[in-house]
From TrEMBL:
Biased composition (Basic and acidic residues): 358-375
This protein's name: ATP-grasp ribosomal peptide maturase
One Pfam family it belongs to: ATPgraspMvdD
Gene: tgmB
Native source species: Lysobacter hankyongensis
Domain MvdD-like pre-ATP grasp: 21-127
Region annotation Disordered: where it falls in the sequence: 349-375
C-alpha cells in the first residue's frame, strides 16, 4: 500500500548528491519535492507572505517562489535540513546598503524557517546547530551511558601540555572542520597525532581552541546511521588503508568493510538517548571498537554522509529507509524492509551521475562547462 502524498522541502545546496538521489527516490514514490538552495535567496527565490481580510474573516497566503515553481508554505509536510546554507546579498547592492540588506534577508530567512515549524523536521534547526558543538555532545554522551576517550577541549597552554604528557599518544581534532585553498589545492582538516614537540607557542595555542583526546586502540570502527529508531551500521577496518589509524575518511574506499554489524543493545539504547538529548531524530554515529570489544563513542553528525554506507554494503538499504522515515513523520520510526526495496544503484543510474551538477547549474542560469561532480 502506497503512503499518502507528501510535500517535502529539502534544504540543501547545488550539486548535493544525497539530496538529488533522495529527490529522485521520493518522486518515484509519488511525493512532491522541492530541493531548495538557501543561497538562492533573494536573487532566485522570493517570499510572498500575504495577510488579508476577506469579508469578515482574516487569513494568510504564505508562498515561496523558486526556480522550480511556487509553493504554499502550509503544504510542506516534511523538512529535511540537509545542508542549510544562508542567503546571499545580491552583487548589485550598493556597498553602503549591504549591511542593511544582509540583516533583512537574514531575518526573512529565519521567518521562513519559523513558518515551516509545523512540518516534521529532519533535524530541527536549533537542535542541529546545538549538535554541532562537540563539547556538548561529549557531556551528554557520559550522561547517556556512552563511553568516550579521555578528552580535553581547551586553549589553555598549561592544560594542553599536561594532557599530552599524561598520555602515551594523543590526537587533535578541530572544534569544527575547515577547508581552504592553498597552492591551487583544496586542503581540509583531519584528525592528527600531536606530540609536545609539535605544539606552537602559547600565544598560538590560546588563539585556536582544539579537541585533544587520548588515542584509542582499534579493533575496527563503525559508522551507524539512525533514522528514528532504525539503525544501519557498517563495520570499517581502517587498518587496511594509509593513515587509517588516525582518520579513515582521508583515503576511504569500499575495501575497508566486511559488511554490516549489530550494535550491542546497551550501545543502541544509549544512542537513542543521545539523539533524544540533542533533540535530533536522525544522525550518523562514529565509534571505535577496541580489542577488548568496548564501544567508544566519537561523535554523532546530524547531517552525516551515508551514500557510501549503502555503496559498500548493499543490504543496508538506507535510501529506501529514508523515504519510509519521511513518509512516517515519526521520530520513533522503525524500518520494515519491503520485499523489493528501492536501491541506491538504481537511483544512481536514473540520476545520470555523469551530469551531476549540470542540471543545477542550468536551472540557475550558470555555465555548464565545469567538470561533473563525482558521487
Amino acid at each position: 500500500m502506497s503512503s499518502p502524498q507528501k510535500t517535502v522541502f529539502i534544504h540543501t545546496m547545488p550539486d548535493d548528491w544525497h539530496a538529488m538521489l533522495a529527490e529522485k527516490a521520493l518522486k518515484r514514490r509519488g511525493h512532491r519535492v522541492l530541493r531548495y538552495f538557501g543561497s538562492d535567496f533573494p536573487e532566485r527565490a522570493e517570499i510572498e507572505f500575504s495577510y488579508n481580510r476577506n469579508g469578515d474573516a482574516w487569513g494568510d497566503d504564505l508562498r515561496l517562489h523558486t526556480i522550480d515553481g511556487s509553493f504554499a508554505i502550509a503544504d510542506f509536510d516534511v523538512v529535511w535540513n540537509r545542508r542549510m546554507l544562508g542567503p546571499k546579498v545580491p552583487p548589485g547592492v550598493d556597498p553602503r546598503d549591504r549591511e542593511y540588506v544582509a540583516q533583512q534577508i537574514r531575518f526573512a530567512d529565519a521567518s521562513l524557517r519559523s513558518l515551516l515549524r509545523d512540518a516534521f523536521w529532519i533535524n530541527p534547526y536549533d537542535a542541529a546547530r546545538n549538535a554541532d558543538h562537540k563539547p556538548k555532545q561529549l557531556q551528554l554522551a557520559l550522561k547517556n551511558g556512552l563511553r568516550i576517550p579521555e578528552t580535553l577541549v581547551s586553549n589553555r597552554p598549561e592544560a594542553i601540555r599536561a594532557f599530552i604528557d599524561r598520555h602515551p599518544s594523543v590526537i587533535h581534532k578541530p572544534l569544527i572542520g575547515a577547508a581552504w585553498e592553498e597552492n591551487d589545492k583544496t586542503l581540509s582538516t583531519y584528525t592528527a597525532r600531536v606530540r609536545s614537540e609539535d605544539l606552537p607557542g602559547d600565544a598560538l595555542l590560546r588563539a585556536a581552541p582544539g579537541i585533544f583526546q587520548a588515542q584509542v586502540k582499534k579493533q575496527f570502527e563503525v559508522r551507524a546511521q539512525f533514522f528514528g529508531a532504525s539503525c544501519f551500521a557498517l563495520k570499517i577496518d581502517s587498518s587496511r588503508i594509509e593513515y587509517g589509524e588516525m582518520d579513515w575518511r582521508l583515503h576511504q574506499n569500499g575495501s575497508m568493510t566486511d559488511g554490516s554489524v549489530q550494535l550491542p543493545d546497551a550501545v543502541y539504547q544509549a544512542c537513542l538517548k543521545q539523539l533524544s538529548s540533542l533533540g535530533l531524530v536522525a544522525g550518523a554515529f562514529d565509534f571505535i571498537v577496541t580489542p577488548d570489544d568496548e564501544w567508544i563513542y566519537l561523535e554523532v553528525n546530524e547531517a552525516g554522509q551515508f551514500i557510501f554506507v549503502e555503496q559498500w554494503c548493499e543490504e543496508l538499504t538506507l535510501f529506501d529507509a529514508l523515504c519510509g522515515f519521511i513518509e512516517s513523520g515519526d521520530p520513533g520510526f522503525v524500518y520494515e524492509r519491503p520485499a523489493d526495496p528501492q536501491r541506491l544503484t538504481e537511483l544512481i543510474e536514473a540520476t545520470a551521475p555523469q551530469t551531476v551538477g549540470e542540471d543545477d547549474r542550468r536551472r540557475r542560469g550558470e555555465s555548464c562547462e565545469r567538470d561533473a561532480v563525482a558521487a
